[in-house]
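Q&A log
Question type: sequence-to-structure
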Amino acid sequence: MSKPVTLTFTFPHKLGAAEVRRRLDLHTAWAFEQFAKERITIEADEWFGKRRAFLAHGYGMTAGAAIQVADDALHFEALVPEVVGPFAPLIEVIGWQYARKLFDEEGAAR
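Response status: OK
Response body:
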């Protein structure tokens, strides 16, 4: 059995936790649709305070992720199969780019 790999990043923001959560909620359905196109199913827990967890199933693998929202930062952590480990730097860059778009002034309207 392979050992899972943990991916983490923290993205600072100045929006406040409530606004970040609102924007995340707006984009969740779109993101799930994109995953579904790739035959990846997502199970999402409801928000528990400022934390939301996800499980993704696809291509015979399962990954888990959690988002923690603070007033000044968003923290993302994922536990992915070892086979995904070599792509960790790319996943982090994509996460940063997506967060930057989500948290810019126009992110509220997207």
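Response note: The domain at 5-105 is CATH 3.30.530.20 (Alpha-D-Glucose-1,6-Bisphosphate; Chain A, domain 4).
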